[in-house]
Every structure is written in C-alpha cells, then in structure tokens.
Amino acid sequence: MTDLELILKWLPKMFQGATLTLELLAIAVVAGLCLAVPLGIARASRHWYVRAVPYTYIFFFRGTPLLLQLFIVYYGFAQFESVRKGPLWPYLRDPYWCALLTMTLHTAAYIAEILRGAIHAIPVGEVEAARALGMSRRQALFHIILPRAARIAMPAYSNEVILMLKASAVVYTVTLFDIMGMTRTIIARTYEAMLFFCLAGLFYLVITLLLTRIFRLLERWLKVDSMQGR
C-alpha cells in the first residue's frame, strides 16, 4: 500500500483525533478564561492577603509540568478512598474529564498572570479619570479597566491558546485519542512512524494557522472598537 493510500485510509481517524483536540482546547481556554478573570483581578490587588491565594495557585500551575498535573488528577486522586466514594468520582475516573480539568486549571494560571500584567499596564491616569467622573471602583473595573486590559492582553492570550494546543498532546498518555493519541494508534498498526508523525504535525500547523488568523481578526476588531469608542 502506498503512502497516499495509507493516508487516505486513516485520514478520517486523524480528523476524529483533531476534533477531540479542538474540543478540549476550546472548552479549556474558555473555562480557563472565566476562572482567570477573578484570579487576575485578585492578583493585581494592592493588598497582599488578597494576592496570596491566587499567587500560590499560579505559582504551582506555572511551576510544574502539565503532564505531572495530569497524572496527579488522573492517577493521584484515585488513591484516596474518600474521592472514590465521593460524588465527583464518575468524572475523576474518566480520562476525558480529568484531561479537561487539568488543562483548564493549567491555562487559567497563565491567563491570570497575563491579565495581571495587562491591568498593571493600564495608565494610571485613565483609572483616575474614571474615578474623577464619579465612577465607583466596581464601575471603573468593568467599564474601564477590564475592557482596556482585554485589548492589551489579547496578543499574549492568543499565544497562550496556541501553546495550550501544543501542550494538549500529553492527553494521549491517559488513553485519549486526540491527534497524538490517534497517531500513535495508527503507527502501532501500520509501522509507518515518520509518515503519520509528519501528518500529525501538519494537523497541528493547520490548526495553529487558523487560530492565528482568528486572533488577528479579533485584535483588529478590538482596535477598531477602541477607536470608535473614543
């Protein structure tokens, strides 16, 4: 069987793997963003006792590999009888939910730090002007600080999404058939390692290209929206 015939035969399986990869990535980065917003706001606080908890969380998830975190969630929690008898066990024994939870917690730490940096990058004069106009701290946060921080953080956030795409390749280690998991399964049946590793690389490159274009359009839209707001 020629290389082209092999590719055509297994291409539907590769698309299945790509679908799972994109599903995990999309849910993780959106859920991670929702979790990162309060963490980032707390991390940017002037009070040390407010910063302490998010700092510890971010330090752990940024300081340890995603693979280690995945193993702790998938293999580690199962060691505790209270977890096995708890209401979350149907999810924590499922590799899909373990991978999704780990990816969400991991990317939330990075996004929170990106958001903290974006908040600190906002000129103090803009915040003072909002307060001078009679805005409360809450109003200034939601109408001035967060929208401004979103525009500043967008390039770094897009990079984090792409990095998360590549990092998601570790989920095959807990028996998920993402792009890498499907690739290794196909290689075990065909013994064509170079061919299908190259094909997997092509899938990642195409997805990265699409994400880059999407975020570039989003950045342009935010820039236009900001100029119209002025």
UniProtKB/TrEMBL annotation:
UniProt main location, coarse: membrane
Gene3D superfamilies referenced in this protein's UniProt entry, alphabetically: MetI-like
Bilayer-spanning residue ranges: 20-42, 54-77, 97-119, 163-181, 193-215
Alphabetized UniProt keyword annotations: Amino-acid transport, Cell inner membrane, Cell membrane, Membrane, Transmembrane, Transmembrane helix, Transport
GO biological process: amino acid transport
Stored PANTHER family: ARGININE ABC TRANSPORTER PERMEASE PROTEIN ARTM, MEMBRANE COMPONENT OF AMINO ACID ABC TRANSPORTER
Protein name: Arginine ABC transporter permease protein ArtM
